Amino acid sequence: NEILSDEVPSTWRRTLEQAVLDGGSTYREVVFFHKRSKSLIVTDFCATINEDFISQQPFLDKLATRTVARAIGIYERVGLLVEGVLNRYRARNQVFLQRVCSWEVTCIVASHGSSPIEGGPVWETLLGLFRRLQDTTGIDEEAQNATTVAVAAEKPPTA
């Protein structure tokens, strides 16, 4: 048992790549890239909630799920949930951004909400944001004020 770092363990180096998002003492996320399927595997990095997902929830949870998803910008859209971390800790996350931008993602497997998410236009929009964040000379006002990046996307497929 060990804490994962940017160094990919030799036991899965052939299959997976990984990058660590460092949010200081309160937040850390490791994202994985499965090479063969070109899938990005994430926990709290991004999410989306669609009606197919909501329809599978117990009755009382449906309203709450829909309301929260709309409030945080992930209802029928893919939302980047870690933009605040990326903005606040830009310098320490340059390796993370470079590594993630180098992957050719075609699918995003998120642990929350509707998944998998087709990569295509969603991934291109996220890459644009990541590249903008790689410029550490200053924080642009739009990125500083945003809490999530809602990316219009085709309805994600259901499992």
Automatic annotation (TrEMBL):
One matching Pfam family: DUF4336
Domain of life: Eukaryota
Database matches in InterPro entries: DUF4336
UniProt-recorded name of the protein: Uncharacterized protein
